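Standup, Tuesday
Yesterday: got the pipeline producing structure tokens again.
Today: sanity-check two examples.
Blockers: none.

Example 1:
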Amino acid sequence: MSYDRKIKYLELIEEEVAVQNAGFVKLEARDGEVTLRIKAEKLKHSDDGAAQIFLVSDGREAVLGELHLEQGQGNMVWEGMREKELAGRIAYEDLREIRIRLQSDRMLRCIIKEAREEIAVRPSEPIKPYAVEAAQQEEIDDAEEKVGLRSGIILDTVEEEPVEQEEIFEYEEPREERKMVNEEPVHTPTQALATTKWQQLWDNYPHVIPFDDHREYLKLKPEDLVVLTRECYPLVNNSFLLHGYYNYKHLILTKEMVRGQEQYYIGAPGNFYTKEKQVAILFGFESFEGKVEPAQNGDFGYYMIPVEI
């Protein structure tokens, strides 16, 4: 038996710019058959009538059908589609985007698959969907219900148990050097063994300076979270953390003194909005830190969650 499930944002595109979230797309593939649900919302009341739906795959697109809108809302379900040929010979595994043409050169777009390319930090980029494991679905639904949001979610069906790791971090191979704003040179692993775990991490991970303060910051990826204690492994599946990583291609790890004790924090990059902060709190993040305090809507910074190393 084969099964796959994805739920992702619909974005409203105006003049080739994503301006807001406008619903979601849900795909379920089971034993060769696919069910597709599209829910559009928060559009103009003038968005009324039939809107054509296109499936897109590597330079090709095919018409799937029509989404019927009424006063800016629509909800359609297609069942029993063949996995190897959804429309126009576009297979489920090749599907890249779903586009819905609206009036006045506007459209809804849902990105099903996208390239994961390493890029420099660009705080001006629009917010993209959360990315979570299927085990997080119930937690996300509860969070959305509490704050009145509909998250865009990528649901992967392969769930793996955390790989047990020794708590002492051991360097395995040189990390590929990547450019980032204000990034400092990385110490090489040939240096003498550090006396503390933080010093070991400091010697082997890229250094970044997101804020003009005295703290030390390292740049990480989700797979690097195995350097944390075993109790922190669930962060690998934390949808809000992955949401920040997939938008900006990095996380940060820092430490500071709290009541005379060293406290460590993982920072997930993002833009400050009141509702976004509410969701962050529901996923364990304690605060938002930016270059200006207090943060204003749209400010770039990091949602911080305490961890142990």
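Example 2:
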Amino acid sequence: MIPLKVSFDNGETFLDRFEISPAIFVQKMAANRTLPKTSTPDPQTFIEYFQTGLEKKGQVLFISLSSGLSGTFQTAQLANNMLGNNKVRIFDTLTGSLGAGIMAIKAAQMAAAGLALDLIVEKLNAIRAQSETLFTLDTLDNVVKGGRLSRIEGFAGTLLNIKPILRNDNIITGVPAVIEKVRSRRKAMERLVSLMGERAGATINQRLIGVSHVNCKEEAQQLCQQIIQRYNPLIPIIIAPMSATIGTYAGEGGMMVNL
């Protein structure tokens, strides 16, 4: 893992997950008046990690957060160009949180099975084209603060208890967009489960599913139970807290499903 930095308006800066846990991040985010800022590792940091990987294994595959959400992919590419080693590959997942994590798991499984690096990247491209990223927000506060939604729209959404459903474009831009708006948290969760089947089709029970959340583990577990009851997945579902980069905009109660 190569950590991003997260900075708060009181001047504190931490390496995400290395120096600050998701739980402490949520506490600090609530205590600050403005949204935290996240920043990518600098090119030299990437170069050092890549060199370590090359020394240990001879080849490196970096699974990156979406280029549509962060400059991480572009910085990693710059570092690789500076390094000038053709044994390093940079892969843009066009998603985030467990969406990227699932691709890292699958890449590691393929590497363990002895697949060549180029073939792993080729298969990851096919996996990315079929993957889905769906999520809902419990509060609009963070997207309003971050300038992604006007204050009038945000106020109306809060007043009417509107819960947006978003889908990430995992093929072209890697940027999420609102696809539906429902009233109540319960209906948002139910719709997430329905959309999974609509998007994935008959193969959904064969997929590795990830559920990530911002400080709402109990609800995430309830969502997993709904998924199990409806689709009976053959592979255990992964549940994990979102870290700062995605959690900043998702806000407390944000929930994401990757498959």
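Quick observation on example 2: The chain has two domains: 43-130, 133-258. The mean pLDDT is 90.
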